[in-house]
Design goal:
Length: 270
C-alpha cells in the first residue's frame, strides 16, 4: 500500500477484531509489499494476500486464519471513521459440483469471492447461532462454500468446534431469482467424516478404512421432474455403529423437501 508522506488516516480491519485506526506516515521498515507474490507483511506479524483493489479500498486475506481484511482510506471516502461500522465479512469460496470436502482448496485467493451484504449477514448469523455466541467468531468459522446452479445457490457454512467440539456444516439455500434464502436449512454433520487441520479437510480414519471416496454433495434430478435435487452422502457414526447415510433434498414452495433418506450399515455385510 502506498501511503501519503504527509499525515494520513487509514483504517485496518481484520475479521473478529474491532477496527484499528492508523494515523501518521508509513513505516517502511515494518511494512513490506511483495509485488511478485502480491502479499503485504505488516510488522512481521500479519501476512496478507491482496485480492483486489478499488478506488478507496484494498481487499486482502489473512494467510494465517484465512479471514478477509480491508484497508479503507477514509480520506477518499470523505467521511469520519467513527461513522462507519463494518461487520466481519466471512470467507466464501467458489466451489463446483460434485463437491467433496477433501478436495476443497481454501488457500487459493483466486477461489475467494465477494457477495452482497445480505448473504454475508446470513452466514454470520448462522455461525453465531451454531456456536451459541452473540458475536461472530472467525476462529470457529472455516469457510462457506458456494455451489451455484441456475435457480438455487447452496452456501455450505462450515464451522469447527461448534457447539460441542464437532466439525459441522449448515447448508443454506439461496434463491437466485428472488435474492432471498429459504426459511429452513440442512444440518450436515461432518465429525465422523473429516478432521480439519492446517487449512485442509482430511478424511477421518473411518472414511479411509472403509474407502469412502465418493462426492459429499451432488446435484441430480432424482424424481425426473426436470428440477434439480441435491444429494448428500456421509458416514454416520454413533460410537459403536456405522452407516452410510444418503439424503436427497428438493426445494418446493420455498421449503426443503426430503425425497429420499436412508442409512445402510457400513461396511455392508453379506
Amino acid at each position: 500500500m502506498k501511503f501519503d508522506k504527509e499525515t494520513c488516516e487509514n483504517v485496518f480491519l481484520e475479521s473478529g477484531y474491532t477496527w484499528t485506526k492508523i494515523d501518521g506516515p508509513e513505516e517502511p521498515d515494518n511494512w513490506k509489499y511483495d509485488a511478485s507474490k502480491n502479499t503485504l507483511d505488516m510488522y512481521g506479524q500479519f501476512l496478507f494476500t491482496i485480492t483486489k483493489f478499488s478506488a478507496d479500498t484494498i481487499y486482502m486475506v489473512n494467510q494465517k486464519n484465512r479471514q478477509k481484511a480491508y484497508f479503507i482510506n477514509f480520506n477518499v471516502k470523505s467521511q469520519p471513521a467513527t461513522a462507519i461500522t463494518i461487520d466481519p465479512e466471512p470467507l466464501i469460496i467458489k466451489a463446483t459440483y460434485p463437491f467433496t470436502f477433501k478436495n476443497a482448496n481454501i488457500n487459493d485467493p483466486q477461489n475467494f469471492i465477494s457477495v452482497n451484504d445480505g448473504i454475508n449477514a446470513k452466514i454470520n448469523e448462522v455461525v453465531r447461532s451454531g456456536c451459541n455466541s452473540p458475536k461472530y467468531n472467525p476462529e470457529q468459522h472455516i469457510a462457506a462454500f458456494q455451489l451455484r446452479d441456475s435457480l438455487y445457490t447452496l452456501y455450505v457454512v462450515t464451522t469447527n468446534g461448534c457447539p460441542t467440539g464437532e466439525l459441522s456444516a449448515q447448508v443454506l439455500f439461496y434463491n437466485n431469482i428472488t435474492k432471498t434464502f429459504i426459511d429452513n436449512s440442512y444440518q450436515y454433520k461432518l465429525f465422523a467424516n473429516y478432521e480439519y487441520a492446517n487449512n485442509r479437510f482430511k478424511p477421518s480414519d473411518l472414511r479411509k478404512r472403509y474407502k469412502i471416496n465418493g462426492p459429499d454433495i451432488e446435484k441430480l434430478d432424482y424424481n425426473h421432474d426436470g428440477v434439480t435435487d441435491y444429494k448428500f452422502t456421509r458416514l454416520w457414526h454413533n460410537g459403536t455403529f456405522n452407516a452410510l447415510s444418503t439424503t436427497v433434498l428438493s426445494v418446493a414452495k420455498g421449503q426443503i423437501d426430503t425425497l429420499y433418506s436412508k442409512e445402510v450399515p457400513y461396511p455392508v455385510t453379506e
